[in-house]
Amino acid sequence: MSILIRIKKGMMLFNKETAGRLYFDNAATSFPKPREVVDAVVDYMTVVGGNPGRSGHRRSIEAGERVFLAREAVTGLFGVRSPMRAVFCQNATAALNMAIQGLLVPGDRVVTTAMEHNSTIRPLMDMKHRGIDLTVVPCPGGELDPSLFGDSLRPGTKLAVVNHASNAFGTLAPLGEIGALCRKRGVLLLADCAQSAGTVPIDMGADNIDMLAFSGHKGLYGPTGTGGLVFADGFDHARVRPLCFGGTGSNSDSIEQPDFLPDAYESGTLNAAGICGLAAGIGFIGAQAGGVAGSGLHRKKLALRFIERASSRVPGLATYAPAERHVSGVVSFNIAGMEPSEVAWLLSDRYGIMCRSGLHCAPLAHQTMGTFPRGTVRFSFGAFNTPEEVDRAVDALREIAREGRGR
Amino acid sequence: MNRFSAILFRSSGYSLWAALHLKTAGIERHLIPVPRSVSAECGYCIRILTGDAQRAHKVLANAGVEFINIVELEERAFA
Questions:
Q1: Which of A17, A63, A248, B42 could bridge across to A50 with cysteines, CB 3.0–4.6 Å?
Q2: Could you check whether A2-24+291-405 and A35-287 share the same CATH topology?
């Protein structure tokens, strides 16, 4: 039996098994991946082959071309002119670590927000233990107030690290205003766009973002294991020391790490298959009606529909952020008298509705919103979700809530 | 002895970037392994006709694609 036939049979089985299930966990990773993403990965693995940038033969060159086109897609997405300013790595966490640990030294002053994910706050806390001065700006109600943020940018501040869209509550930071403040005060801005990339239009130049960390497998619909750090045009990347050193396929006669982009930060063989899929994912988002903005609007509509219907029909259900702020399609909620984990388990076990409960690796954000340590149930909608699915989930929650109240 | 020109880059990524711009400009080009006689790189460079060297230089400069140099070589450079 050929590999292709086995793959096709596997997919048929897979589709039969998952029919009727609802996936509302797109903030963890988007699912399903578009057909063109799967095709791009398979095409690399079965047709292209080769290690990008390592050899002079046809397969290596074609692999290099695919990776280069992915760089163009990424930098184009974020309004950056030079494709060489996109550095690929395994996820947004690795990108944030690359920027934070690569840039900061003991004695540096850093500002961040009370809505950060652990991918930002943990490396910052580690750096704090090593001697940086860290200020966490409060975000009452999950909102980052630019004036409060501006007050924290005291003279000598080197870096601001700001979460764009909260993975836990869906709120959006006013990145443009924050960027303008940072630029005015001479502070570098690192934006965590793990959740917003592919959902909210971002222009690094217009928003004065110096470094941007993105995830490839969430709103951009690429495979897991993809993400990256993008340096703005004109930003002196030499300020960021690489964390990983090794073979790059360049300067091979030297035992010193190259100092140019992107090679300085891309030691070892890239996830070429994943990067091909990522490029296809970006193409998929771009082909949606309205592009990135349209993709975000679709999710926002689903979030608003859920909030409106669930708030009126599900007894004891409470959401946490103002409805109009759920720009990225993420909604956190609780049902009075029930643990989030119990609600999520019942949704999965009885109704085939998959979501995430708990603290979502964002304890700081949950402390800010008053949901720590209990956590919340999180629905995160994606490109393939429909209003009918939202209604089905509301019906399920109504039954769960009624049962919970009857105990 | 036949001669050609090779555009050398810091890494293969730049050569791919350049190749796209040269293609758009209608310049005949081929990605080839970097000749051992000019560099110890393990990636590739771009081979063009020597008569196109000046035009290629201009195209890449206008596009902002950095390159190390354009060198003229004999076919036996691969020997």
A1: A63
A2: no
Picking from A60, A82, A253, the nearest residue to B40 by CB comes out as: A253
Smallest CA-to-CA distance from A22 within A306, A371, A289 is with A306
* Nearest CB to B43; choose among A81, A249, A260: A249
What residues does each domain of chain A span?
Answer: 2-24+291-405, 35-287
Which tens digit of pLDDT belongs to each residue from A117-166? 999 999 999 999 999 999 999 999 999 999 999 999 999 999 999 999 99
- Asked whether this complex has an ipTM greater than 0.90, the answer is no
Cβ(A22)–Cβ(A392) under 8 Å? Answer: yes
Measure A373 CA to nearest chain B CA, in Å: 47
**Mean of the per-residue pLDDT values of chain A:** 93
Q: What is the pLDDT of residue B42?
A: 65
Residues A242/A177, Cβ–Cβ less than 8 Å: no
Rounded Cα gap, residues A244 and A292, in angstroms: 32
Query: A252–B17: do the CB atoms touch at under 8 Å?
Result: no
Q: Which of B10, B46, B48, B41 is nearest to B27 (CA)?
A: B48
Which of the four CATH numbers 3.30.750.24, 3.40.50.720, 3.90.1150.10, 2.60.120.1440 does domain A2-24+291-405 have? 3.90.1150.10
- HSE-up of residue A194 (Cα within 13 Å, Cβ side): 28
Name the CATH topology of A35-287: Aspartate Aminotransferase; domain 2 (3.40.640)
